[in-house]
Amino acid sequence: MIRPATTDDVPDILRLVRDLAEYERALHEVKATEEQLRERLFGDEPKVFANVAEHDGRVVGFALWFLTFSTWNGTHGIYLEDLYVEPDVRGRGYGRLLLTELARIADERGYERVEWSVLNWNEPAIGFYEALGARPQDEWTVYRLTGEALAHCAALGVRP
User: Where is the N-acetyltransferase domain positioned along the sequence (predicted)?
Assistant: First the structure.
């Protein structure tokens, strides 16, 4: 079963975030807390959303996403930040259902795209995405400001 996440799902979502980070060899980078996720997902003005997959009454997967906007298309889109299904229930269609639910939401709301990033070495995920019809956007390179570089860039805009 795929459904929108509730506040009761926050501990499971964080557990799955940590499982995903461990798979991606980056568990040490996870700083999120249950309180942060609860506020971001269910606060007064949520900017991020989640759907969960249940198997035998247990949360076994999730998709965490937020809205983007295309100035060229003049429409919103969905950015899939994380998609993860526990290894012991993979192959049962939960990942596909989570992703097709996002496609359904986008289509229903008139959004023109669902997009995400995938690690270059994650061949199982790449194969899964391509089997659904997704195609890599090779002409684009992702850039990120973080840590000291973010602080330095922010300081460049400070006026005396």
Answer: 1-160
Q: How many other C-beta atoms lie within 10 A of the C-beta of residue 21?
A: 17
* CA–CA separation, 76 and 113 (whole Å): 8
pLDDT digits (tens, 9 = 90+) for 38-94: 999 999 999 999 999 999 999 999 999 999 999 999 999 999 999 999 999 999 999
Residue 129 appears among annotated catalytic residues: yes
Name the catalytic one among 84, 94, 111, 129. Answer: 129
Residue 51 CB coordination number (10 Å): 21
CATH code of the domain containing 143? 3.40.630.30
User: Into how many domains does the chain fold?
Assistant: 1
Which residues form the domain of 54?
2-156
CB distance 65 to 49 below 8 Å: yes
List pLDDT tens digits, range 118-142.
888 989 999 989 998 999 898 888 8
Nearest residue to 52 (alpha-carbon basis) of 42, 39, 43, 65: 65
Q: How many of the other CB atoms lie within 10 Å of CB of 3?
A: 12
pTM above threshold 0.85: yes
